[in-house]
User: Fold these one by one.
Assistant:
Number 1:
Amino acid sequence: MELINGNQIAQQVTEELANEIRALPENQRPKVAFVRVGEDPASVSYVRKKEKTAAAVGIDSELHLFPEDISREDLFAEIDRLNADPSIHGILVQSPLPSHIPDQEAFDRVSAEKDVDGFHKVNLGKLCQEDSSGFVACTPSGVIEMLDRTGINIPGKHVVIVGRSLIVGKPLSLLFLRRDPLGDATVTVCHSKTPNLEEITRQADILVAAVGRPGIIRGHMVKPGATVIDVGINRVEDSSRKSGYALKGDVNFEEVEQVAAHLTPVPGGVGPMTVAMLMKNTYKAFQLAGDRA
Ligand code: NDP
């Protein structure tokens, strides 16, 4: 079994990007605004990681923090302000937002040209139409980039995705379906109402788990020789750790490593790819803004 090293692949992606940004004229740098509401510990840690990676590749960033009880109207006014600021090329609203502000409404409030998360309905529509001028969500595009850089062929393969969310499963299914050398797969998408999940997952040449249930993909659910991509990031109690928790994927690693030919670990798999693709999207937003000017 070959472990797919997401840290290493993400590093390649960000180094290539850093070289491109270094070559820009001194006064031209991409800039991203991070919007975080409240103090959800996972959100705090994700945004911190994104800020650090941005700094490492030469992208400027601004953090906009708001209290948990900010009204929907006030948050949207802040997003409008960032939309109107020409010095900002990308805007990321960290989810989950408090329950009185629907995540998708906030994603759609960000101008489609600055939607580096790729969650805006215009960008989801462009993905559906195979129009490459839009932004593709970072986790799905990170999965494809990872497969490509590992040399795993996609065309003609049967891909099974477990999970149909708008931020992972659904856009990833569209990427695999594209008429493209990194697409052209036959795609099956499973979810919580899918009966006999294991019968379907066992048919996968490439199996992607994006569920949010630790260890749900067991060894007997995987075809021998398959490629298994574990998108899940689950905080599981672990008193032996200082933090009190460990990060676990949706894949039962010990069982699946006996069966799969390629497997991504958690942490150190898809997670770093997501951050790297966010940087690529920010650079694309910067370039598109330059083209429009
Ligand atoms: P959602 O909760 O939005 O979606 C989960 C999906 O899994 C749903 O489609 C749901 O079905 C399906 N599901 C739930 N239970 C089962 C089950 N028993 N059998 C089959 N399918 C099931 O989660 P996200 O897509 O946002 O995230 C999924 C995981 O990926 C999480 O662990 C999250 O933390 C992680 N993640 C990791 C990222 C990274 O960078 N690596 C980025 C984003 C997410 P239904 O639609 O019927 O409810």
Number 2:
Amino acid sequence: MGLLEGKNALVFGLANDKSIAWGITQAFHREGANLGISYAGEMLERRVKPLAEKVGCQWVEECDVTKDDQIAATAEKAAQHFGKIDVLVHSIAFAGKDELSKPYYQTSRDGFKNALDISVFSFVALTNAFLPIMNPGGSIMCLTYYGSVKVAPNYNVMGVAKAALESSTRYLAFDLGPQKIRVNAISAGPIRTLAAAGVGGFRDMYKHFADAAPLRENVTIDDVGNAAVFLASDLSARITGEVLYVDSGFNTVGVQISPKEEKSE
Ligand code: NAD
Ligand code: 0WE
């Protein structure tokens, strides 16, 4: 029997088969969840629909999270189709190219607003919109990155956004605790997804990560999917407001030495 048997789970942020949302969706499907998928723009429909079919997902809805009316309409459609839901996954982030290449102090007001609107406020707004149809014992989660606590070159306003997202996770967990709804974040190591493509220096960072992390391996979307199953399931019943690192232990290492020096030691 699957860990998510009988649970209705909505996943926001599926773009393609490289998406972390896809790793989560597949893992949820494997564990017997009844799935709903939401994606950002018309342009993604062509890619998302065939993926939804693979996991027998009947509910596929477009939702631009910068639009209040679209969030409300999506919650309405979910209520009609599912009645109640048990799991909500937010796997969405965006910052403009300029904000991820120029020095952080050159972040524009609009660039800052846009990055925090899409990457942080949307998590609060989705929680608010779907709360009326969440079952007690439900689980809400988002995806974050270590650039929230330490500087990751070029991550810039996204690091600030992830810090706000992790803090939002704690405040939401406090608000929803009495209703027995849990809110957590998964902090994933770097993964080659659409959002990582075209990021200057990603290749080197990706390589360095596997050299420096205790487990000496990069993280996959399946690894994140399995952690998401845990947070979605009743196995994590008393865990809320947490940031769960799925990063081969990278964040625990304070002083790094080059692989060469390490061998000669
Ligand atoms: P991805 O590009 O596959 O997913 C990002 C999603 O955000 C896309 O589906 C995109 O359509 C969606 N999105 C952007 N603007 C939107 C809007 N206005 N409305 C609705 N959706 C919108 O990339 P990913 O790496 O799978 O990213 C998913 C999450 O994981 C993000 O929160 C990201 O910050 C986080 N994360 C990624 C990594 C990594 O290295 N790839 C590591 C840690 C955390
Ligand atoms: O959270 C992310 C991805 C965030 C992201 C990436 C892009 C690139 C394309 C948000 N918005 C955009 N906008 C674009 O136009 N990650 C954790 C992956 C990532 O992104 C980085 C990283 C890492 C790691 C950006 C700079 C430095 C490191």
